[in-house]
Specification:
two-stranded antiparallel ribbon, 64% helix, AA/rel_permease1, transmembrane helix, cell membrane
Length: 525
């Protein structure tokens, strides 16, 4: 390619908003984990007796939470040195090598489209349709119409300003948190089905690795999926007052609080159903476990409140992921790795073209749910020789499959980040316990993959294996894209993420998180 061509293919210009976002805005972005939404639609999967943790669901969630906390600490090592709109893309470009950063960005953002950038609109459609039919009318719009309405709201709010979108996230999250926690406390105070017990934290209840099922580790993949999205906090680094302080705080504290919340909810729901019912799949197989328990322990009126709460929290999740995806595609467009149109911003300084990629994900998955028969495909042959269908509708089956694809892709990114982070530890204190945390961060996604793919059957009737094939497809597409930009725009690849150069003079990490610096060799409690 000639020098002239290289110049024409160079990085596009673009500018986001002022650096006026703070730690609370980063926390709102980290709430892309969608805690209430995840409790309603994802947490039950951890208790699946066939490939999950069964009665040990709370233990699996606890282990996943500790592992993701290590991942959050690891990502904070990057966040205190680099900041940019593309987050993971800039982290690996500068922390490892431009080729690693650019290639990883490909399947990270593609995976995000399957998760919160697309799959969430299937979830919102399903939830809104169920609420309408239960409380308003048996008729009304189809489920996918509700999903598209949610998509439109998300795009409008993200178009008119990141601060407005983040305020909406915080409002939705605040409104939805308390009612869910009240349900857990009521169940625990009433003693659940058969009294309070800590036996679900004994791995001997289902075994650690599993024999015919997944065991405790079998629940870790979906346990980790509960937290996927927390890294979205890093996407507003370019618009933050002090990203090297606020982003690390948001990452670690949000994951820690969310982990405690998930463990409490897993415990409460477990005792709410009782050991025998959970072990037989009552929680995993329920289309609405939160509503079911709310009706049983409080009343149907409270179930209605929680259904609205879950929808609000899902909207907060969708808003946060749109912020992350829009800025990711903006960063790649600005650096000349995607067409320059992706670097366009609105008069509100928002990456409106990048934001539109969530429409690609949402509409694409709605079409996939309409043309496939995943509900009749995912299942198993029971003892009586009959096929047991795992999911009630094609839409719900597609939602679970797409969420698993996104989880695989993003957990692979977590693994790469953790491995590369070993190089950053010497710059962040060089303490032995920091290496230990990084090793835990490496082990967590590996255990998640093992737990998800170890159980039989190893074929496409297993949703985890179907998702694996889709994930491999994403990696292949990302490789093709990377090869194209490497050949046609080599200089852009080699100079990727120049705007997110390493920040020098950052405070010690413990000070960044709000602690006093520790004496040499001491490990934080």
């Amino acid at each position: 390619m000639s020098q002239a061509d290289a110049g024409s293919a160079g990085p596009a210009t673009g500018a986001l908003g002022k650096r006026n976002l703070t730690t609370i805005h980063a926390v709102a972005q980290a709430l892309a984990i969608g805690p209430m939404f995840s409790v309603a639609l994802v947490l039950g999967g951890v208790s699946r007796p066939d490939i999950g943790a069964g009665w040990n669901a709370a233990l699996a969630v606890l282990l996943a939470g500790l592992g993701v906390l290590a991942i959050a600490y690891t990502i904070s090592l990057y966040a205190r040195r680099y900041s940019g709109a593309g987050a993971v893309y800039e982290y690996l470009t500068h922390g490892a090598h431009p080729w690693v950063g650019v290639f990883t960005a490909g399947f990270f953002f593609a995976g995000a489209l399957f998760l919160g950038g697309g799959g969430i609109y299937l979830g919102l459609g399903i939830l809104s349709d169920g609420f309408w039919k239960s409380h308003i009318s048996d008729g009304g719009p189809s489920w996918w119409v509700w999903g598209m309405i949610a998509l439109g709201i998300v795009l409008v709010l993200n178009y008119i300003g990141v601060r407005i979108a983040i305020r909406a996230m915080l409002t939705f999250a605040a409104i939805s948190f308390l009612p869910m926690l009240v349900l857990a406390l009521v169940i625990i105070v009433k003693g659940g089905e058969s009294g309070n017990t800590l036996s679900m934290f004994n791995p001997g209840e289902t075994s650690l690795f599993g024999i015919t099922g997944g065991g405790v580790l079998g629940g870790i993949l979906l346990g980790i999926l509960l937290f996927v999205g927390f890294e979205a906090a890093a996407s507003i680094g370019e618009e933050s007052e002090n990203p090297h302080r606020s982003i690390p705080r948001a990452l670690i504290w949000t994951v820690a609080v969310a982990a405690a919340f998930y463990v409490v909810m897993a415990y409460a729901i477990s005792v709410g159903y009782g050991k025998e019912a959970v072990s037989k799949g009552a929680w995993a197989g329920s289309p609405g476990p939160v509503s079911e328990l709310a009706t049983k322990y409080i009343g149907s009126w409270y179930s209605t409140i929680l259904e609205l709460v879950i929808i609000l929290d899902a909207m907060a999740l969708a808003l946060a992921i749109c912020v992350m995806i829009g800025r990711g595609f903006f960063a790649l467009g600005r650096d000349g790795l995607l067409p320059k149109v992706f670097a366009k911003t609105s008069r509100y300084d928002t990456p409106w073209v990048g934001n539109l990629m969530v429409a690609v994900g949402g509409i694409g998955l709605v079409i996939l749910a309409s043309v496939t028969s995943y509900s009749t495909k995912f299942g198993a042959i029971g003892p009586d020789g009959k096929f047991i269908q795992f999911f009630p509708t094609d839409a719900f089956a597609t939602f679970i499959m797409s969420a698993t694809v996104g989880s695989y892709a993003i957990e692979l990114v977590y693994l790469i980040l953790a491995v590369v982070a070993v190089r950053l530890v010497p710059k962040a204190g060089n303490h032995w316990w920091q290496y230990l945390i990084v090793l835990v961060a490496v082990a967590t996604p590996l255990l998640g993959f093992y737990g998800a793919l170890h159980p039989a059957p190893h074929d496409r009737s297993n949703v985890n294996w179907e998702a694996l094939y889709w994930t491999i497809g994403l990696i292949v597409v990302s490789l093709v894209w990377f090869a194209i930009v490497l050949v046609s725009r080599r200089s852009n690849v080699d100079n990727a993420a120049a705007h997110a150069a390493e920040h020098h003079g950052v405070p010690p990490l413990d000070e960044t998180l709000g602690f006093e610096p520790l004496p040499e060799g001491k490990m934080p409690l």
